[in-house]
Design a protein that fits this description.
mainly alpha
């Protein structure tokens, strides 16, 4: 399934010594709520990213020989990707909501902090994927213009089905427009809040949900089916992700507006919303791989994810049972590397395939399928190890450098 749009997952985290600006999700250490107090560290969302990343990796590389009750959930990594997209919007607002970003210097500093390291890490992942593609091409030339469009993050605008080296990078390409437009999207949402207060934000959130989930639902009700191609485009084309990002942003604005108010019932809302989302992925029957009603999972759970984030952010998630479970240090520690896991999964897997083929000591493939389960476990553990080593010894110094440059820009701007 290396051509699945979820060879993805999707983007962020608060790691000690690392800036909390991971692309798909990112928990911020430096963000402040509207009250001026430091934003709470929502560690349970980092724990949730661990499980979402694991679902995506297992969905790509575990072969199902005999279908079971969990087979449908295995193919619903698109729901996990949508969770990451909504979480990216939520955590971007959670981290930067109190910063006005009025001047050009402040906006440039935001771009450097939020987008800079993500782009550099994604380029590295593309280089690794390009190396795999060159080896697999067996001397055949690659389309240089296609590769250039991929590294420029514009190929997904032209044709998202024309897969880039290291296909997971489509998620970053899809999210870049949302990050670039965030300062103005936030101003627009703040204007709605100024006029209609919290009710206006709620109406805006529901309108965004209708915009993202409505078209696919309409097609399914009209035709009784959604084709693979339509479902693929509805997930990977950059404009398709923008409403989901904005849903997360507006949910964070509501949470910041309400603070710790309604902690008990918001914790209940968080638990019920996430439980319903997980249950739908686990227990709804499959209609075929990414066709039928399966593409509805691209966006239909965005409202449930946003409700969980809004509810569980009250009092740092202490009123939510599921948030308490997701805050377990083991999940949080692994979740801190979920972005790197997501981007490096394909090249690391192909390295294992090549090692097996070259040494003849093992094979990741059985009858052409990823059916070596012992090999998968070795790959799975090595993937998290590689991600952690890169994050701590390469990415952390890079983040420190970017933070210094951003602070220098801000100082010159003032």
């Amino acid at each position: 399934h290396s051509t699945s749009p979820t060879i993805d997952p999707a983007i962020a985290s608060t790691m000690s010594g690392r800036e909390a600006t991971l692309p798909i999700s990112g928990l911020a250490v430096e963000g402040k709520a509207q009250s001026g107090e430091p934003a709470a560290r929502l560690s349970h969302l980092t724990g949730a990213r661990c499980l979402a990343s694991a679902l995506i990796v297992c969905g790509h590389f575990i072969y199902v020989d005999h279908p079971s009750a969990f087979t449908a959930a295995r193919h619903r990594g698109n729901a996990a990707v949508d969770f990451f997209v909504v979480l990216s919007g939520f955590m971007t607002q959670w981290a930067y909501g109190s910063r006005m970003l009025r001047g050009g210097t402040e906006v440039r500093s935001f771009y450097l902090r939020r987008v800079g390291r993500v782009v550099l890490t994604t380029w590295l992942a593309m280089v690794l994927g390009l190396g795999v593609a060159l080896v697999q091409a067996h001397g055949k030339p690659l389309d240089c213009w296609h590769v250039l469009r991929c590294f420029s993050f514009v190929e997904t605008w032209r044709d998202p089905m024309d897969w880039c080296p290291n296909g997971q990078t489509w998620t970053v390409a899809a999210l870049i427009p949302s990050w670039l437009l965030y300062p103005w999207a936030r101003k627009a949402a703040a204007a709605v809040e100024h006029v209609a207060e919290g009710c206006g934000l709620l109406v805006l959130l529901l309108g965004l949900y209708a915009l993202t989930a409505g078209p696919l639902l309409f097609m399914f009700l009209r035709d009784g089916d959604i084709s693979y191609r339509r479902g693929f485009w509805s997930q990977t084309w950059p404009p398709a992700t923008m409403p989901d990002f904005s849903i997360g942003m507006v949910a964070a604005m509501l949470s910041q507006r309400h603070g710790a108010w309604g902690g008990h019932w918001r914790g209940l809302l968080a638990d019920v919303s996430l439980a319903l989302a997980v249950a739908s992925c686990l227990f709804l029957p499959s209609s075929g791989y990414r066709q039928g009603w399966e593409p509805l999972f691209n966006h239909s759970l965005a409202l449930f994810f946003a409700a969980h984030m809004y509810g569980s952010s009250a009092a740092g998630g202490s009123s939510s049972v599921l948030a308490s479970f997701l805050s377990h240090p083991a999940l949080v520690s692994l979740g801190e590397y979920s972005f790197e896991v997501y981007l490096f999964q394909y090249p690391v897997h192909e390295i294992f395939v090549a090692l097996g083929d070259i040494t003849k000591m093992f094979s990741m493939k059985v009858n052409g399928n990823n059916a070596n389960y012992e090999g998968f476990m070795a790959f799975f553990l090595s993937l998290w190890l590689v991600a952690g080593l890169y994050a701590e010894f390469v990415e952390a110094p890079l983040i420190s450098w970017l933070r210094t440059r951003a602070n220098e820009w801000s100082a010159r701007g003032h």
